[in-house]
Amino acid sequence: MNSPFPKSSSAAGEGKIIARLQPDGVSGLETITYQYPLKLISPSKPAEDKSVLVFLLSYGGGLVGGDQVNLSIQVHPQAKLTIVTQGHTKVFTSTKTDIVTRQTMRAQVASGGALCLLPDPVQPFAGSVYEQTQIFELAKDASLCLLDWVTQGRSARGEDWSFVRWLGRNEVWTLPGGDDSGARLLVRDSLLLDSAQAHPQMKTLRESMHAIGIMGTLILRGPLMKSLGEFFLAEFTALPRIGARDWRSEDAKKAEVIEGLSTAETWRRDRLKMEKESGLLWSAALVRGCVVVKFGAPEVEAGRTWIGSMLVQEGSIGEIFGDHALLCVR
Amino acid sequence: MSQLQHERALSNDAEAIEDEIADLERRLAEAKERQRQAQQQRSVVQESNLGVIPVPSPSQTILHSTANHFLLLLSDSALPLGSFAFSSGLESYLAHNKSSPSPSHSTSIVTNKPPKTKLPPPSFTSFLPLSLSSYASTTLPYVLAAHRDPAQLALLDDTLDATIVCTVGRRASVAQGRALLSIWDRSLSSSLPPSSTSAEAAAAILKPFSALLRSAGAPPPSSTTTTTTSSSSNPSTSGGGRSSGWNDPPPVSAHLPPLFGAICALVGLSLEQTAYVYLLSHVKALVSAAVRAGMFGPYQAQKTLASRQVQEMIGALMKREWERGVEEAGQSVPVMDLWIGRHEVLYSRIFNS
Question: What ipTM is given for this predicted complex?
Answer without folding.
Answer: 0.92
